[in-house]
Structures are given as C-alpha cells and as structure tokens.
Design brief:
It contains six helices and 19 strands. The protein is α+β, with helices and mostly antiparallel strands. It has two domains: about 55-250, Jelly Rolls; about 255-375, 2-Layer Sandwich (60s Ribosomal Protein L30, Chain: A). It is globular, with a radius of gyration of 27 Å.
C-alpha cells in the first residue's frame, strides 16, 4: 500500500511539473510575440566572392622597377609621392602624399567591360582621413585636381567606412551609398584588397572577400572613362598615410563556359599565386568557383591544367614551379569544389611558351597564367 501511495504521489508531482513548464513556455512565446522577437534560429546569409579579374592585362604595376624614394615612372601627380617598403609587407608600395591626385598612365579609353584591383594599406594615428578613387573622362585642358566633369563615379574610403557616389552632367547624380562603417577603422595598418568590376553601367566593388556594392546602373548612360585617379586631401587627419601596390587593370572577364566547352581551351589569369610559390591567393576564389561551375555542368568533360610563368628566375626552377601551380589548381578544384580528381591532368611549361614579351610588367602579368585544355 505504501508503495502504491508513493507511486501516486510521484505521478502527481511529475504532472504538476510538466504543467508549470508548459505555462512558462507559453508565457515566453507570448512575450516574444509582443516584442517582435523570433523564436526560431536567425537566418544565416552566406555571401560569395564572385569577382573574376579581366583576361587581358592592360596595365600592371607593383613598382618593382622604380627606385625607392622616387615617384613611379608610369604614374602622374600634381603633388608628390614616393616608392617605399613597409615592414611586414612584401614588395614596394606607393606612398600617397596629402593634397594631391595620382593616376596610372593607362593611355587609352577604357573598354566597356574592365576590372581593376590593388592592395591598399591605410595607416592613421587616431582617426582615418579620406582617400577618393574617381572614374571619369578627362578633358584636355582639365587641371588634375579639378572635380571630374561630365559623367562618372567615385569610391571613397573616408572616416570609418566606404561610400560610393556618381556624377551626371558635371553634378551629383542619383546614387549615393555607404557600407561597413567601421571597416577602415578596424583595419588600421592592415593590407586590404580592393577589386572592382565594371560592365558598362554596372559597378561591383569588393573589399577583401566581401562584395560591398553591386549597382546595376551606377554610371549614367553614355559614360566614357579614360582615367582612374586617387585623390587625397579633401579631409585631413593626423598621421593619415595611404599606400597602394599591385595595381592591375584588365579587359573584362572571359566567357569561361564558351572558351572551355566550345573552343576547347580556357586561358585564365585570375588564378594568382604568391611570388615564387604555388600557394593560391585568396582573391582567386571567384575564378576557381566559375571554373568549377563549368565542370560541374559538364560532367563528361576532362581537362588538362597547364601552368605558365614569366621569365623572372631560373628556367629549371620556373618549370618546376609551373607544374606545382597546376597541381595546386587541381587540388583546389577537387578538395574545395568537389571536382573528381580523375577528370583532371596537370602539366607545366615554365616560361617556354610566352604569349607576350617579358620586357614589361603587363607582358609578365599576361605570361603568368593557367590554361585548361579540354581532353
């Protein structure tokens, strides 16, 4: 009898506990509805880095041929600047001085579709100043520091964040926006990779691996561009010093699907490596993703991946390097994008099959390439 009473007491206690728990959950749900809070897990948004650099390099400068302390020979300015080295960051950098504008002498009208990329370091003491990047058509008698007339647009690294705006008929037009307000502030004395793709009116802007802007009609209809300039001096800040390097300007991205499937050969310069290394740079992800997409859509296609280098360094070392880079591309496509390794062969040609003279930075950049040949 005692055992039966104990069992009944235990059952009643359990039922009471469950009822109280359900009532508390109901109260929590009512409170959530009253405050507008969601009871389910928040939506996870995943953004992809889909920047694909242009196929044919029209201008490239890493300032390797310029003397330290000089202003680079292939740029122009109304102020001053100098080529420097920075501790902890490889290569040479152009230090932009306050109050000036600076532009690469590309020498021709930009194509309708083009891309440009560069590394940037912004250093400051307490607060960042601002650096503007303008895209416009220069007039023959226009002073370098004049606001760009006609149609165009600008990217501004100002204060803590990044903003864009455009011009139409010499005045401000209808696009003005800003993003990632604390990005510049949080990256003081750190390298940032800027990548921009222009397709007629459309402009896409990437900062490191993130797409910040994708504006379908950023440039007004009929916009012609023949100059890209950096302007420094519209707002000053203590110790504010911007540096740029590895500036690459190219004709718009290739049609990878058509090149590989229809023509049987795809040449890409969008897969890049650390100097003298087979380590693939992070900015290659957009190109690798595009190639993987073509291969996934055509599962019967097999390819040979062939690496090529410029002429810098020893011939034999370049041959080994090109083979290792091709193998690295195969591994990335297999491990990161799920392409069956048995569908890919690799080879390397070193510097033996140059497509441009190795006498200019652009020629060397065009020779550093990866080819995929349909088998």
């Amino acid at each position: 009898m005692n055992k039966l009473k104990f069992l009944l007491i235990f059952v009643l206690f359990a039922l009471t506990t469950m009822a109280v728990a359900q009532e508390e959950e109901g109260e929590k749900a009512e409170k959530s509805e009253g405050t507008g809070q969601q009871s389910q897990a928040p939506l996870q948004v995943v953004s992809k880095f889909d920047f694909v650099p242009g196929e044919q390099v029209l201008f490239f400068d890493d300032f390797a041929s310029d003397n330290l302390g000089d202003f680079p020979a292939r740029w122009n300015t109304n102020s001053s600047g100098e080529v420097v080295t920075l501790g902890g960051f490889p290569g040479k950098w152009l230090s932009l001085q306050p109050g000036g504008t600076f532009y690469p002498e590309t020498g021709k009208m930009f194509p309708d579709n083009f891309t440009f990329e560069f590394d940037m370091i912004i250093a400051f003491e307490t607060e960042p100043g601002c650096l503007e990047l303008d895209l416009y058509k220069a007039l023959p008698d226009q002073a370098m520091n004049e606001l760009a007339p006609g149609n165009g647009g600008a990217i501004k690294f100002e204060g803590h964040g990044i903003s864009i705006f455009n011009w139409k008929d010499g005045g401000y037009a209808d696009i003005a926006n800003s993003a990632d307000i604390d990005y510049i502030f949080d990256h003081n004395n750190k390298k940032i990779r800027i990548s921009v793709s222009v397709q007629k009116q459309r402009m896409r802007l990437y900062v490191d691996a993130k797409k910040l802007f994708d504006v379908p009609r950023f440039f007004p209809v009929g916009t012609e561009i023949d100059r890209l300039r950096f302007a420094l001096g519209s707002c000053e800040a203590d110790g504010y010093k911007p540096y740029i390097s590895n500036f690459r300007f190219a004709v718009g991205a290739p049609d990878m699907r058509n090149k590989l499937i229809t023509e049987g050969k795809l040449v890409t310069r969008g897969i890049t490596f650390d100097s003298g290394s087979d380590k693939i740079k992070a900015e290659s992800n957009g190109t690798l993703r595009e190639i993987a997409g073509v291969l996934k859509d055509n599962p019967a296609v097999r390819v040979k991946i062939v690496g090529h280098t410029d002429s810098d360094g020893d011939d034999a070392a370049n041959m080994i390097l090109s083979k290792n880079r091709a193998a690295a591309v195969k591994m990335a496509l297999s491990d990161q994008y799920g392409i069956d390794a048995s569908r890919m062969e690799t080879d390397g040609k070193g510097e033996s099959q140059a497509v441009s003279p190795n006498t200019t930075p652009e020629g060397k950049a065009n020779n550093r390439r990866v080819e995929l040949i349909k088998l």
